[in-house]
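Sample log: Putative gluconeogenesis factor.
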Amino acid sequence: MTMKTYRLKKPRVVVVGGGTGLPVILKSLRNQGMDITAVVTVADDGGSSGEIRKSITMAPPGDLRNVLVSLSDMPKLYEDIFQYRFKQEDHFLANHALGNLIIAAISEMRGSTYDAVQLLAKMMHVDGHIYPSSEKPLILHAVFQDGTTAIGESSIAKERKTIEHVYVTNQENQEEPKAARKVVKAILEADVIVLGPGSLFTSILPNLMIHDIGQAIQASQAEKVYICNIMTQKGETEHFTDADHVRVLHRHLGHQFIDTVLVNIEKVPEGYMDFSIYDEYLVQVKHDFNGLREEGCRVVSTDFLELRNGGVFHDGEKVVDELLRIVYEARV
């Protein structure tokens, strides 16, 4: 008689966002025995990514570069080379990250940023799947409460106005933006979907505003977790409470879909923040636990704070400890 052996499937976690917050969580999630998928925004038009977008029609590489590094096990020296940023006085190459140029080169070789990221993921021994949210570069639009509008991720916050809603369009044509290959499938098969941490209107919502991604997140049976930002952001979430963040997400998808919110309650020490470096941050996000409950959320509030180099970050290990609990509960 032969014995059958059954292998338990790894829990499937999909993390959606962009900016600096996403890699922190992914780095800590790596090596936890998860099947990780990162869905990364392609609406960034600032800095090195924005300059490359002007030269080559491709999804902006910056957030994809940081996510590749966060899920890679390559030696520190290789990581430093990939992340190297040319100096301001280098004129033609000023401020470009070498990894952005490599992604641009392979995108041109392969005719696709999506394919370039898959190839680099193999080269860099990435543990997980990395997909741009769309295979085409997108343009982010904001409509403000006073009826005026702004176009382009990098110009929205500069207006310092209250945002009513955002939406995305294709950079190249008038077609409706579509999710990249395998993104919808990953969302529908996930045990847990994690949004954030990251800029609400410019890193998280651009992904959700791709219609089939928004639809898939609502349709998915996964536990949906929002990691609320620690600080309010200039021109984006000024005066926001944690409940305001969730209200905005729910308003954009027209449905209460967030199940659990992770909220940091540890205080940032007075005078700690170096606002000359982190000039987009203002004050700590205020708490409105009743408001969160009205939005149908379970709240996990604890110390998620990490202080580093004059900046305020989520402590990846503490967040992932909590996510592991949620993953386990979701599977049970």
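Observation: The two ends are 31 Å apart (CA to CA).
Observation: The longest helix spans residues 316-331.
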